[in-house]
Amino acid sequence: MSNETKPQDWSKPAAMAMPKGGYDKASAQQGRYGPIFPKSPACYGFSIMAKIIPGREEVFYGYAKTIEKTIAAQPDALAVLKLHYLRWVLFPIKGDTYFMYQGIFDTDFDKYTEDAIALFGATGLNTVFENLEGFPVDWKTNAPAFIKFVRDHQCPSFLEYGEYPYVSADEIKKALKLKAAFSNMLDQMQ
Amino acid sequence: MLELDDIQHILLTRAPAMTGRYEFLSFSDSAGARAWLSAIKDTVHSAAAMRATVDKDKRWVTVAFTWKGLRALGLDEASLSSFPEEFKQGMPARAEMLGDTGVNAPGHWVGGLTSPDLHAIAILFARDEPERLRCVDEHDKLVAACKGVKVLSVLDLNASPPFNYAHDHFGYRDRLSQPVIEGSGEEPTPGSGAPLKAGEFILGYPDEFGVTAVNPQPKMLARSGSYMAYRRLEEHVGKFREFLRQHGDTPEEQELIAAKLMGRWRSGAPLVLSPDKDDPALAADMQRNNDFNYGEMDPHGYAVPLGSHARRMNPRDTAANINRRRMIRRGATYGPALPDGAPDDGVERGIAAFVICGSLIRQFEFAQNVWANDRNFHELGNERDPIIGAQDGTLEYKIPKRPIRKKIVGLPAFTTLKGGAYFFLPGLKALGYLASLN
Q1: Nearest in space to B407 (alpha carbons), one of B432, B382, B435
Q2: Looking at the predicted structure, is the pLDDT value of residue B253 above 80?
Q3: Shortest Cα distance from B209 to chain A (angstroms)?
Q4: What CATH number did the domain enclosing A54 receive?
Q5: Does a structural domain hold residue A10?
Q6: Domain for residue B393, yes or no?
Q7: Would B139 be classed as within a structural domain?
Q8: Which of A27, A82, B319, B410 lies 20 to 30 Å (CA to CA) from residue B305?
Q9: Is residue A4 part of a domain?
Q10: How confident is the model at residue A123, as a pLDDT?
Q11: Local structure of residue A59 (DSSP, 8 states)
């Protein structure tokens, strides 16, 4: 449930110093699975970092190809996640390999958790998280455990910035469709 | 196959009741509580018994417990801890997330429903008023005979006239779109989709993902049980009618505004199939009145506004995993009908309903948190459900229309939540198990 009351002006770039720990413990809005990480000028987002099970690096690269093919075949496969962007990174710390899942999206993840889990299971996108240390093996049937893993591994931002703040991906797509429609209309008038 | 003789009737059937009563109970003595349960459980119809005798029976009883009520019955801590977290916390603790804030907050609820002493509910549906009175008298005697059993509060129910079909005090026809459970013997009406796996609603059976819930423990409790979210919703009929008059110059325009809030005409005819005028024949035709979708037939909401109550509570083909979000609704109206044209009399009237589902957090709480109260549902920006959403007079309601949409600013709250609770609805064998705890 959104409690936003202040007007959100997309034309005015905005920055927000984020609460330490990701949310204000005294006033955080409650979601179904716990306090909600607040929306920022860069919308909602995750930066989940976790150590991968040693020797599994190639699985991640293979998984990237799987996602590429999945989206090419079914462009709306990830629609339920309300995403703008995903960036996935593998990086070393003292000889171990860590994975970072950074996503920017338009709804707090809490809302669509079960839909996201269903999506991962249904589209065969399920393998990559299983290569992270500590990931619950029963995640497909245990949404609270999945959520707990995500929350435990979330590294909240301390600063977020938006050049066109708070605008959703759907609004951007609508604006671009409108622009295309106007261009087409003007072409027809020639 | 469903164990129809172990499932409480309310899960699968709808009693032909015109009246009834909810009794909210408190237990201060576990032996007394079990004595009460031992006696009343024999009056609870299973789904099978209900179907066999519905034509001659006059009353139908349902029994369910809060988490604290299960403890008061004497259930051990290991079993108690096996219940889902949201059920353990109870509805008042989940209020902010559910949108139960401001005048809807638990601090304003009536009937002692926020009390930790709320332990059980006995639902009585009766065919007529004499039978209701007889049952109330019987139950009063039973309560008096059981040590430590106390009635916290009651709510008397009555169908709202005219009685040609079930409707709420606003006049909206009810009971048109309900999920059908696989193995129940019912056939879905056209447009209602395939029957859903029993585990979506009944514990102990595979759900839409093929998973059978292992909790609560012991296994006996998980078999044939379910969860119920109770909502007592006052309907402000005078305010609703005044709103229609403000936004419609003629009776026809007022009916259209009422339809646009709901997504169906008050007769029940779906706006998708009859967008410009009411069609009572369509409304009454179960083979046609649910046979529509939104994604293909009304993607922009020209017939049914994107934020309407029906579109939020069952987005049909426009939501992901819709089969994991469905709910069974049961309940009744309470309070006297407000005659047409009469000014609001200040008397409380409304609907007192149960949402029944296998997972409160995945089904009921999702619908309440995301579908009803997300301001940005379908990118609407500043709206909540116009009937049951948390309205405080600052939100909008947009009605798509060519060439320019109609935007209502400052939508009033037509309903106020007066109480709520989470209950566990055990199967009949589980009722016997709970009654025999020591």
Answers
A1: B382
A2: yes
A3: 8
A4: 3.30.70.1090
A5: no
A6: no
A7: yes
A8: A82
A9: no
A10: 66
A11: H
Question: What is the tally of structural domains in chain B?
Answer: 1
Whether B155 maps to a domain, the answer reads yes
For residue B421, the SS3 value is: strand
Report the pLDDT value the prediction gives residue A6, as an integer from 0 to 100.
53
The CB density around residue B295, as the number of other CB atoms within 10 Å, is 11
Q: CA–CA separation, B390 vs A27, rounded Å?
A: 19
Q: Is residue A6 part of a domain?
A: no
Strand segments (E) across B192-248: 226-235
**CA–CA–CA angle B228, B230, B234 (5° rounding):** 160
Name the most confidently modeled range: A9-13, A185-189, B12-16, B420-424.
B420-424
**Residue B278 resides in a domain:** no
Which residue ranges in chain A fall short of pLDDT 50? Answer: 1-3, 5
Expressed as residue numbers, the domain containing B64 is: 9-232+420-435
**Confidence at residue A9, expressed as pLDDT on a 0 to 100 scale:** 87
Q: Which of B366, B371, B380 to mutate to test the interface with A (most CBs of A within 10 A)?
A: B366
Considering its fold, how many domains does chain A have in total? 1
- CB contact residues (below 8 A), chain A span 136-165, against chain B: 140-141, 143-144
Range of the domain at A142: 15-188
Q: Is residue A169 included in any domain, yes or no?
A: yes
Chain A: residue whose CA lies nearest to B215: A142
Closest CA–CA distance from residue A114 to any residue of chain B (Å): 7
Write down the residue that tokens 């509060």 correspond to.
B153
% of chain B beyond a pLDDT of 90: 93
* Rounded (to 5) percent helix, strand, coil in chain B: 30, 20, 45
Rg (CA), chain A: 19
% of chain A with per-residue pLDDT over 90: 58
